[in-house]
From TrEMBL:
This is N-acetyltransferase domain-containing protein. GO terms for molecular function: acyltransferase activity, transferring groups other than amino-acyl groups. InterPro entries: Acyl_CoA_acyltransferase (IPR016181), Glycosyl_Hydrolase_84 (IPR051822), GNAT_dom (IPR000182). Residues 2-203 form the N-acetyltransferase domain. It holds the Pfam family Acetyltransf_1.
């Protein structure tokens, strides 16, 4: 019923849609954001543009619809530098920095726009052992049946072939289901901050 394949440029709209429809700790975030593209600009688009060799999708064979993805990059520090040069500048022109809006008063869109203007950097101590990172999202119709594991296995193998020694990922503190999934795959908790947990896996 599903085909796992490398992502293509023609999948970009689907990746943005899935990013939005799983953007509330795995639940549909469509009602939270006025701009349906804003989450994809941060969590999907740059990977398809700058790390296409580490982007894979799950496609429904019956409908041809993309139902899930895993997106990664082997070198987080280099990826962050690349985005600072080429990805963020045009988005910053498009979306004004909401820095003058108090944090507690920002809308969901403004919180994401703030990330575009002030993208967080992965901690150096994490990158020393876990230089790669990834994002994975599946729509409800594709969850279960080992499909998430298959996506992860495909990306992990691509990273191993590239000589990567470890990768990390972040997950919402409230998303206990995802945390259990990562632990089952062998990820270990590296650090915990308010609202987020960072996991790592040695390859």
């Amino acid at each position: 019923m599903f085909t796992l394949r490398p992502a293509r440029e023609t999948d970009r709209a689907a990746l943005y849609r899935i990013c939005l429809e799983t953007g509330a700790s795995g639940q549909d975030a469509t009602h939270l954001y006025a701009d349906p593209l804003i989450l994809g600009h941060v969590y999907a688009g740059p990977y398809l543009t700058y790390a296409p060799g580490f982007a894979f999708v799950l496609e429904d064979q019956r409908s041809g619809e993309v139902m899930g993805y895993v997106l990664g990059t082997p070198d987080t520090a280099a990826f962050e530098a690349t985005l600072e040069r080429g990805w963020w500048p045009p988005l910053r022109d498009l979306y004004p920095d909401p820095a003058d809006v108090p944090r507690a008063a920002r809308t969901p869109d403004e919180r994401i726009v703030h990330l575009i203007h002030h993208p967080p950097r992965a901690p150096h101590d994490v990158l020393a052992e876990y230089p790669a990172h990834l994002h994975i999202d599946l729509l409800p119709g594709a969850q279960g049946g080992g499909r998430g594991r298959a996506l992860m296995t495909t990306l992990l193998e691509a990273l191993r072939v590239a000589g990567v020694r470890g990768l990390h990922l972040g997950v919402g503190e409230s998303n206990v289901r995802a945390q259990g999934f990562y632990r089952h795959l062998g990820f270990q908790e590296l650090r915990r901050a308010p609202g987020a947990v960072t996991f790592g896996l040695r390859l």
